[in-house]
Amino acid sequence: MVWIRAKTESLGSKDPWGVGQFRFLRKRGEGGFGRVYLADNEAGDLVAVKVLKDGSEQFVERFQKEAERAGAVTGRYTIEVLDFGVDDENPWLAMPFVDGPNLGELATGRPLPPDQVTNIAFRIAEGLVDIHAAGIVHRDLNPNNVLDSETELRIVDF
Fold first, then answer.
1. Rounded to two decimals, what is the model's pTM?
2. Active site (annotated) includes residue 54
3. DSSP secondary structure string, 125-142?
4. What is the spatial distance between Cα 98 and Cα 53, in angstroms, rounded to a whole number?
5. Which of the following is catalytic: 115, 140, 148, 157?
6. Cβ neighbours of residue 149 under 8 Å, at least 6 residues apart?
7. Which of 77, 101, 120, 140 has the fewest CB atoms within 10 Å, i.e. the most exposed one?
8. Which residues on adjacent β-strands are paired with residue 78?
C-alpha cells in the first residue's frame, strides 16, 4: 500500500471504476465541473484524473481544444497533461498526481509564514508566465487550483 498524504476518500458505488488506461483508486475531490480521482496505470504510476460532468457535444468540442492547448504548456510549476479522452460518456483529463494539499487546505486555520508566502507567490507567478506563453489565460486561479507537496508546487485547471 502506498502512503498518500493528500486528502482522499473511498470510492462510492456511483463512482466509475476508471477511464482509458487508468484505474481509479480513491476520490481526491469534487468541484462544479467534475470529480478528481487518484488513479494508476498499468505501469503502477499514480496519476490524477479529472472526469467532467458535462458530456454535451458543444462542451466536448471545447474541452478537446482546451486539453490540446493545455498539453502544450511546459513549466516547472504547471501540471503536465498526460492524456485525455472525449470518446467516453464524460470527458476526462489525466495528469501526474501531486501528493500534497492544495493551498486552501494548507492554510486552513493559520497564517503561513511570510517567507513561505513569498516563495509560493514567486512559483505561482512563474507558472502563470508559462501558461500565458502557451496562449492560455487561467480563468480560475484560486487556492484549490494550486497543489503544494513537500517537493513541488503545481498550478492545475488552466
1. 0.83
2. no
3. HHHHHHHHHTT---TT-S
4. 22
5. 140
6. 5, 6, 98, 99, 100
7. 140
8. 155
If we measure between CA atoms, which residue out of 131, 99, 120 comes closest to residue 26? Answer: 99
pLDDT in tens, the chain (158 residues): 455 666 778 888 888 899 999 999 999 888 777 889 999 999 999 999 999 887 788 888 888 888 898 899 989 999 999 999 987 678 999 999 988 888 888 877 788 899 989 999 999 999 999 999 998 989 889 998 899 887 889 998 88
For residue 63, give the 3-state DSSP assignment: helix
User: Which residue's entry shows cell 486555520?
Assistant: 109
Closest CA to 36 of 8, 14, 60: 8
Q: What is the largest CA-CA distance in the chain?
A: 46
Judge residue 84's burial from the number of C-beta atoms within 10 Å of its C-beta, 0-12 exposed, 13-18 middle, 19 or more buried: buried
